[in-house]
């Protein structure tokens, strides 16, 4: 299986393939139900959760409205603290900047903190093409990398793998990438974690270059923040001589006080913890403490275009907690790979088509990868109305001609509603012929009626019933 998403089919076909994998579905069902139940208990501990959620929404919206101001403030603060800021308009530019920075050190290996921004731009593949090996150090990302796989979840990239599969991957692949797995490795979680720890330790100790993303950037001080649960991030952020952070421009927050809100809502929504075990913060460089060279690559890659959409821009509030994936009935059954993007699930269905556009078959299909049940909106810690954006993006796809039948049907319906006499005649005809109506739709409509009952047509239209009722009232008076 390829490590990239290039050439992935549209969501319906990819989901159909995933539905036939019983092991995948069992893994997903167990993991998502476990995570979401724990999250619900953690959130219930806070009496002011609704207020925190609204505060996060307001902070993000305010920041996005003044993004230019806060990004310039961030650049000034990072530079003053000894860091260097680079601006990347797209993936190609970001990859070129990072590659040049690594080459300037003379190193051919880097260690990485889990970073969706670097996955988005396919940095690892670009570095490999330039003779540079990037080692993932997050446990789940390590599993994905060793298995020549793709991430399928925002928080738990290897959620589609069970313990026995992970054991086999470690046994077969660890020796190729570095220290081999211990002899007699079983699928006990403690043994698997220890095998990963031993494998990664040598990489941490010899690495001269670290690459990370960031969960947040504080504009007032130029501070970057990474939250994680394993400690691998702390190692990558403190041991190397050079640290390169690739961060989406939407990750900035104005002040430390704003950060306080998200350090409460993110861990509870993602890992169901009151706080993350490791919260690493750094501001520029300091003599004799941590990396001596710090580079921040601010990534646009479609975010400015997304910001211009008044409805769609709310996707940029996302703090990558993955709560929406864990409650989504579509994700639970189809898995993350079906979305053809590093951003799977409900948030991916609205973020990816905006960052990449809706011209490709897979991106045009993503706004339809939802039942619009609304569970994702209910759990989102920054109140992104994902169903609203999905409907908005579906309209965009239709306007671009992506669904000709739907467009024709909507045009016909609009014409009928504009001509009341035609609508009334059609309703009467439907009522009089209702015994002849099929139980399933023909042609392309068959897929819809295969899983839904067609509504029964009444024996007379509402208009006729209403007129008769009004007539009887008049006679009675």
Automatic annotation (TrEMBL):
Superkingdom field: Bacteria
SUPFAM superfamilies assigned: 4Fe-4S ferredoxins, NagB/RpiA/CoA transferase-like
Stored InterPro entries: 4Fe4S_Fe-S-bd, 4Fe4S_Fe_S_CS, FTHF_cligase-like_sf, Helical_ferredxn, LUD_dom, LutB/LldF, LutB_C, NagB/RpiA_transferase-like
Domain 4Fe-4S ferredoxin-type: residue ranges: 315-384
Keywords of the record: 4Fe-4S, Electron transport, Iron, Iron-sulfur, Metal-binding, Repeat, Transport
Region (Disordered): 433-477
MF annotations from Gene Ontology: 4 iron, 4 sulfur cluster binding; metal ion binding
Pfam families to which the protein is assigned, alphabetical: Fer4_8, LUD_dom, LutB_C
Name of the featured protein: Iron-sulfur cluster-binding protein
